[in-house]
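Human:
Care to share another protein and its fold?

Assistant:
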Amino acid sequence: MTPSKRTPQQRDRRFARARHFTQAIFLGSCATSALFVGYAANAAHSVTTVAVTPPTTSAATTTSEVTTTTVHHETATTTVPKTTPTTTARSVPTTPTTLKKVTPTTAYTPPTTAPVTTTTVCSSTPSGRVICY
């Protein structure tokens, strides 16, 4: 076998250049991937913006017994036009507070979950050991 024409230092420099070249390609591809993922996430985020409205409930009066009740406190509000002050005292009419039984209604029904079924796969090794997953 003939001896190598390159010295060990020349060989080490050549490997170092190849290593630096492959590292530069790898880091460049990682940076490009990260920029693309950021762009795609930003583009997808701006498309999927949705305004959320809270669910509405109706206040229906019922005479039957319910287990869940919602209490609405009603107060009387009056609007008095602005007039010149008078010397007589005005009385503000008040209404008694009443409690109403309300049947709960739901505007949003959460989805139900289906049971997950998986099949068991078993395999055996040539020595006779059985592995199931």
